[in-house]
Amino acid sequence: MKNVANDILAEQQNIKQVKNLVWVYFYLLIFEGALRKWVFPSLASPLLLAREPIAMLLIYLSFKSKVYTNPISVLVVWSATILSFFLTIYFGHGNLLVDVYGLRIFLLHYPLIFIIAHYLNKDDVLQIGKTILWLNIAMTILVAMQLFSPQSAWVNRGVGGEEGSGFSGSGHFFRVPGTFSFTNGLSMFYGFAGAFIFYFWLDSKFIKENRLLLIASTVALIAAVPLSISRAVFFQLVVSFIFLLLYSLKQPKLIGKLLLGLGVFALLIFILNFFTFFQIATIAFSDRFQNANRIEGGVQGVFVDRFLGGMWGAITNQNTSLAGLGLGMGTNAGARLMSAKGFLISEGEWGRLIGEMGIFLGMVIILARCALTVNILQKSWALLKENEPLAWLLISTSGLLLLQGQWAQPTSLGFSVFGAGINMAAMNKSKLY
To answer: What would the mean pLDDT of 381-404 be, rounded to a whole number?
Structure first.
């Protein structure tokens, strides 16, 4: 009996360690860029891999645990990646350092989806969501400071302490990255903030206990759309709202709440329009939106060509090698290690995977990601019958990243695996012990 009790105690300690490390991974994901820009600019390159030791510890603890087993998806992806690793050495670019850099994406990070999903439960996910509400307020304040400050200002320092972290926006206003290294991190953060805010407005208990926090975070999210000058933020919130509407089909009584919510939303925008910062940001965002749509062809250019077109183009590319050009070659860091700039293979994720790994192994990875996305989508939809919309709202943002997110970029990789992990964990109603 004493041995059994010791085993249970050890496993509980293991679970606690895993959960603590997941929180460390989360905070590093949010503040990794800040460390690289403001705190330790001289260590900008090593800090690019700041989450890798956490990933290795999580995998070690999961194997140490007696209750966790690798799902088939991980074994398939690991097998394809390891095979591609050796093909890279013998038939690809042959650069071992670049090869290892590419290997870590699926060897270290992909399993985290299932580790997070196994050890965390809905209560843990809600705590993460509440933390994001607080961070959302602070992030929007920072974004406003970055937008209205010159690129030479401290808040606009780039990676390595270089001047100017903003990207082309509208007129003399730049798209800003917040605490992240690049603007894509900010759009993904606001995507998850929006999904959680929509959910918490449906939770009457949370509204009652955290009314001021929820209102403040909602105002911050609305303000963030023009302040970020990011179409990605706008489109992601639209997608999440569409998922909310689909949920209302399962729960018709929500229609009244949705109409009330739209009324409150319109009122908040009306009030914000009295503030000069919001007026200026809205003009800049509108200008950016119109100019970018004109250049890229509106919805067709943004969605059909960039998303669906990128998928199809990756598969039909006649220059694709059977063995692939080699792991890591399609990443920015890999390109720099090979003394090149820009994208050596493809800016699109599917094109990168097939270009690096070849048509067969690349398709194995793509199909694994597609299958996992569909699986989460189906389970999330089924939970709506039980009036459990959290996973469904989270898949509105995590699903796009899991399916087509650019995992060659560390921040996008982090949000993809962490987002998919908490999405699956939101379906766990009870704790392990």
So the answer is: 94
Q: How far apart are CA 318 and CA 351, in angstroms?
A: 12
Domain that holds residue 194: 2-425
More confident residue, 303 or 150: 150
HEC profile for 263-307?
HHHHHHHHHHCCCHHHHHHHHHHHHHHHHHHHHHCHHHHHHHHHH
Contact status, residue 119 vs residue 19, Cβ threshold 8 Å: yes
Of residues 379, 373, 381, 378, the one with CA closest to residue 397: 373
Inside any domain, residue 430: no
Number of structural domains the chain divides into: 1
Q: Cβ distance 37 to 180 under 8 Å? A: no
Residue 327, phi then psi, degrees to nearest 5: -60, 140
CA separation, residue 224 to residues 25, 95, 258, 341 (Å):
24, 42, 21, 32
| pLDDT attached to residue 49 | 92
Q: Work out the pLDDT band at 171, boundaries 50, 70, 90.
A: low
319 domain-assigned: yes
Whether 431 maps to a domain, the answer reads no
Tell whether the torsion through CA atoms of 248, 254, 259 and 261 is positive or negative: negative
Burial pattern 274-297, b for ≥16 Cβ within 10 A else e, equals: eeeebeebbebbeebbeebeeeee
pLDDT of res. 298: 54
DSSP class per residue in 125-180? HHHHHHHHHHHHHHHHHHHHHHHHS-TTSGGGB-GGG-B---EEEETTEEE--TTS
Q: Is residue 362 in a domain? A: yes
Q: Name the amino acid, one letter, at 158.
A: G
- Which two structure tokens, joined as six digits, stand for 302? 């943004």
User: What span, in angstroms and rounded, lies between the C-alpha atoms of 27 and 185?
Assistant: 13
More confident residue, 338 or 77: 77
CA end-to-end span of the chain, whole Å? Answer: 18
- Cα separation of 414 and 30, whole Å? 9
pLDDT score for 351: 87
Q: What is the pLDDT of residues 235-266, one digit of tens each?
A: 899 999 999 989 988 777 777 777 777 777 78
